Amino acid sequence: MSKAGDFSLKDIERRMDGAVEALKKEFGGLRTGRASIALLDPIKIDAYGSLTPINQVGTVSVPESRMLSVQVWDKNLAPAVDKAIRNSSLGLNPVVEGTLIRIPIPPLNEERRAELAKTAGTYAEQARVAVRNVRRDGMEALKRAEKDNLISEDEHKRFSDQVQKATDHNIAAIDELLKAKQEEITQV
Predict the structure, then answer these.
(1) DSSP alpha helices (H): ranges in 105-152?
(2) What is d(CA 52, CA 116) in angstroms, rounded to the nearest whole number?
(3) Are residues 98 and 119 in the same domain?
(4) Predicted structure pTM score
(5) Which Pfam families has this protein been placed in (predicted)?
(6) 184 and 32 in contact (C-beta within 8 Å)?
(7) Do both 100 and 113 map to the same domain?
(8) Contact at 8 Å (CB) between 81 and 45?
């Protein structure tokens, strides 16, 4: 049994996993020296009256290790895609060739690498805080369930141990992701 009162171990694990997944997405948007289609994910363009992700107005690809390309489907949107990429905080300068937009990925200088590594650390800490908040919510739900006689003291202890195990697992996953991302960023 993993449900007692408003406590659900599955829900706790799902919310913790969500924090790790969100971190992976944030890391995908951090520019390293190599091209990755995830780099353009955070950029939205004004298309047809609403903000639209680039991958919904064209095909994003990586033709070579330091180059991204966007094949825009509607030629009228090419200038908007160009402008959105230029105005992003990624420091990229696209080259427009009709409906094809080439985006060279410049190598990172040492200062920018240090800044990105620090940003990655900030993202990881936010994910750790999110996991700890889910842990706290779970522990409080267990206390209430025991107080309301929905679970015994032994069940409270067993569920608490499971919540702590899930917390430790997710914090370790976050630390691993951070280590890998920082190595990727600092790699010359």
Answers:
(1) 110-147
(2) 26
(3) no
(4) 0.67
(5) RRF
(6) yes
(7) no
(8) yes
Q: How far apart are CA 143 and CA 159, in angstroms?
A: 11
Per residue in 87-104, pLDDT (tens digit) is: 887 778 999 999 999 999
| Whether 67 contacts 35, CB under 8 Å | yes
Q: Using CA atoms, how far apart are residues 26 and 23, in angstroms rounded to an integer?
A: 5
Look up the domain containing 72 and give its range: 37-104
Question: pLDDT tens-digit profile of 120-164?
Answer: 999 999 999 999 999 999 999 999 999 998 999 999 999 999 999
Q: Give the Cα separation of 76 and 99 in Å (integer).
A: 9
State whether 58 and 41 are in the same domain.
yes
Residues written for the chain? 188
